[in-house]
Design goal:
Layout: H1 10-22, H2 51-57, E1 63-67, H3 79-82, E2 89-93, E3 100-104, E4 120-123, E5 126-127, E6 145-152, E7 166-172, E8 181-188, E9 192-203, E10 206-217, E11 226-240, E12 243-257, H4 264-269, H5 276-280, E13 284-301, E14 304-327, E15 338-362, E16 365-386, E17 389-415, E18 418-437, E19 443-444, E20 447-463, E21 467-478, H6 482-486, E22 499-512, E23 520-540, E24 548-571, E25 576-591, E26 608-618, E27 622-631, E28 634-635, E29 643-644, E30 647-657, E31 661-668, E32 676-679, E33 692-694, E34 699-707
Parallel strand pairs: 4-7
Antiparallel strand pairs: 1-6, 2-3, 4-5, 6-7, 8-9, 8-34, 9-10, 10-11, 11-12, 12-13, 13-14, 14-15, 15-16, 16-17, 17-18, 18-19, 18-20, 20-21, 21-22, 22-23, 23-24, 24-25, 25-26, 26-27, 27-30, 28-29, 30-31, 31-34, 32-33
Length: about 700
């Protein structure tokens, strides 16, 4: 029995027809394309130019390429660790586990971060985010990647992503780009023990790779233990010199305790304690995930290339999140307090995905057309929570969403050193939210189709052989998630509007290769300004702690500066080098003449975030150097009455690499500074609101990789 649906949604059939009609149109372009300038990635480990980096060089905006080889020089336990040096992306874990807060260019700045929308996740170009754009149940495991591509904001057009924050694509490690056998061990503070064993091989035109991983940690806060096991496998066949096929299989079982948030007084007393309700309610985020995918790549001829793929993912969620809220209605009377609310969410979710991308180089034109399809069905219910156990069902959940994203972009090298980039995206996405309150029998069914046409135009100017300057103007668009529709402040079957706006961006990037007697440089600078209409924000419902109410805000502004600067300075005969790396972000996110909030800053995002390191390296494989984090103050409410202080951290990394082995040691937060890592947002927060979660204290980790 096939695991893929027999019938394709109406919107999907329409998009396939449109894509089929559009792709041949690009064949009318004539003249020969000059090769674009290819730039180094964010973290370079002696890689040569390839398709990913070449595609980045043809984008008139910020795209970062992170090589996963760098993850074996430090502790990377979640996606937040892996994106540490990507400017414009602010991400933190509340307890050091997989449950993270992530925001790109001001996306996802709402109250509970429940669905973690705003950034579309891909794995090998196929969707991981659900069809409505939420990432609540799981994030990508960065250690399973060969590299990670982060296309911020509208620069995710070539991925077809219709989100405010852009897209993240995790490109899998395969037997063709990995050692045939390797083992990795990582251990350290707060009970962290992590191990990975990878085995693979290449036999003629076939190859295969399997990774087994296990991780456990007590967490640096009370009630924050995590246990995760995973299996990642892929196999490929080169059916001819021009056609590759690959299948992927993933299974992850992740059980994670949640420590909950603290009031200001609790935080000052002991920031590492758990919210007492998190213990009595046994808050958890337990997700079991299984995923199958297949992808083909066909080099039709020297000028054209076709990629296509299908994916299927199942997720089972068990999520106790709100302890019993008791009210003593008769005061000192004889009746005991009555439970008025608690919450345990238990659902099963499945997502079908598909992708087609066609690239044609014809004369001075380089055309890329693509189509993304996704269909998600979530079923289950809400339950009363009795110490982490289901205690009677309170509601039925039956949510459906589908998404079609069709895009086409032409990179026209109309004159030497100048490339005009123009294109558009079409979005057709549907939401069907069905919820029933079992106590009252009342039902809600917000449902709506969202459609948008999102054009983009940009210009790239080559600056000799070392770099390029770029500028672009694009339309931004993101439809609401099913969670946001379910939690609409109006509480009926009306629907929220989609977020939309316009962004302008300009910047420069490039590199100068180091030599034995000359320093090397790489730089990447982007400045952007976006005006957004109908941004969806949410505040906690005072009648139901732990839940949120969503609403459209008329106008907001998202602006910022993103910079990455790296260098390599040779010492003496060039066998010794000093390599500084600096990632800096400045954020200016605000309401725009709002009738309630005026021009207040939007909450959750820091005014600035600077992360960096200065490494000494020599040709014997030894490295050592300090790391640092400078993060600015943030507001915890829309009223801007509650301010979370800035923090400054210092760390240290060292290690040595041999021919078939490498070891490292890392110390974080050496001064043991107490700081707020993540927090929830309120309309007007008070000191008595439990919203604060501590960041990581002083921690020490060691790791070893063996290659055979």
């Amino acid at each position: 029995m096939s695991i893929f649906p027999i019938a394709m949604p109406r919107a999907s059939r329409l998009a396939v027809a449109v894509a089929t009609a559009c792709i041949p149109l690009s064949a009318t372009f004539a003249a020969e394309l000059q090769d674009p300038i290819t730039l180094d990635p964010v973290q370079v480990q002696s890689t040569r130019p390839d398709d990913v980096q070449a595609e980045r060089a043809k984008t008139p905006g910020a795209v970062s390429v992170v090589e996963a080889e760098a993850f074996y020089e430090r502790t990377v336990t979640n996606l937040a660790d892996s994106l540490r040096y990507v400017p414009g992306v602010f991400t933190e874990s509340g307890t050091g586990g997989d449950a993270i807060f992530i925001s790109s260019r001001g996306s996802n700045l709402d109250a509970t971060n429940y669905d973690s929308n705003g950034i579309k996740l891909f794995q090998d170009g196929l969707p991981v985010s659900t069809a409505d754009g939420n990432n609540h149940n799981r994030f990508l495991d960065p250690m399973a990647a060969h590299r990670i591509v982060v296309a911020r904001g509208a620069n995710a057009l070539t991925y077809g992503a219709s989100t405010l924050g852009g897209a993240i694509d995790s490109i899998s490690a395969t037997a063709r780009n990995s050692p045939p056998l390797q083992a990795f061990f990582n251990a350290g503070s707060d009970g962290l023990i992590s191990s990975r064993l990878t085995a693979g091989g290449v036999a003629g035109n076939a190859d295969g790779l399997v990774t087994l991983e296990a991780k456990s940690r007590d967490g640096y806060r009370e009630h924050s233990r995590q246990d995760r096991i995973g299996v990642y496998a892929n196999a490929g066949w080169r059916l001819s010199e021009d056609f590759d096929a690959r299948v992927f299989a993933t299974h992850v079982d992740n059980d994670e305790q949640l420590a909950g948030a603290l009031t200001r007084a609790q935080f000052e007393q002991d920031p590492m304690q758990a919210d007492p309700s998190a213990i009595t309610g046994n808050y958890q985020l337990n997700v079991e995930t299984s995923r199958l995918a297949a992808k083909g790549t066909w080099n039709v001829d020297p000028r054209s290339r076709l990629e296509f793929g299908l994916s299927y993912e199942e997720q089972s969620l068990y999520h106790p999140i709100v302890d019993r809220v008791l009210v003593d209605f008769d005061g000192p009377g004889p009746n005991p307090p009555t439970e008025v609310f608690s919450l345990l969410k238990n659902t099963d979710q499945r997502t079908y995905g598909g992708m087609v991308r066609y690239n044609l180089r014809s004369g001075d034109h380089d055309v890329l057309a693509g189509l993304n399809l996704a269909d998600t069905h979530e079923q289950g219910g809400n339950y009363r929570n009795a110490g982490g156990r289901r205690n009677g069902q309170t509601g039925i959940i039956d949510n459906r969403s589908d998404s079609v994203e069709l895009f086409i972009v032409d990179r026209w090298n109309f004159v030497r050193d100048w490339t005009l980039v123009y294109g558009a995206q079409g979005v057709l996405t549907g939401r069907d939210v069905r919820s029933v309150d079992l106590a009252s029998g009342s039902a809600r069914n917000p449902r709506r189709d969202y459609r948008a046409f999102n054009p983009r135009v940009g210009l790239i100017r080559a600056l000799g052989t070392a770099g390029e300057a770029f500028a672009s103007v694009s339309r931004l668009y993101e439809a609401p998630t099913t969670f946001e529709l379910e939690d609409d402040v109006r509480g009926d079957s009306r629907t929220l509007d989609a977020m939309h706006g316009t962004v302008v961006e300009a910047g420069v990037r490039g590199n100068a290769v180091a030599s034995a007697d000359a320093p090397g440089w790489r730089w990447d600078l982007s400045v952007y300004y976006a005006r957004i209409d109908d941004e969806i924000l949410s505040v906690e419902d005072p009648d139901a702690p732990g839940t949120s109410l969503s609403t459209n805000v008329e106008r907001t502004v998202h602006a910022g500066l993103e910079a990455l600067l790296g260098a390599s300075f040779p010492l003496g005969d060039g066998r010794h080098r000093i390599q500084p790396l600096l990632s800096a972000t400045y954020n200016a996110f605000a309401f725009d003449d709002d009738p309630v909030y005026g021009d207040n800053d939007l909450p959750a995002a820091p005014e600035y975030a600077v992360r960096g390191e200065v490494m000494y390296r020599n040709d014997n494989g030894f490295f050592v150097g300090p790391t640092f984090d400078l993060v600015g103050a943030r507001h915890a409410d829309f009223a801007n009455s509650y301010r979370v202080d800035s923090y400054h951290l210092v760390g240290l990394r060292t290690g040595i690499q041999g021919e078939r082995w490498e070891v490292f040691a890392e110390a974080r937060n050496l001064l043991d500074e107490t700081y707020v890592g993540t927090f929830s947002v309120r309309d007007r927060a008070t000191l008595d609101d439990a919203i604060l979660q501590a960041g990581e204290p002083r921690s020490v980790y060691v790791g070893m990789r063996l290659r055979f």
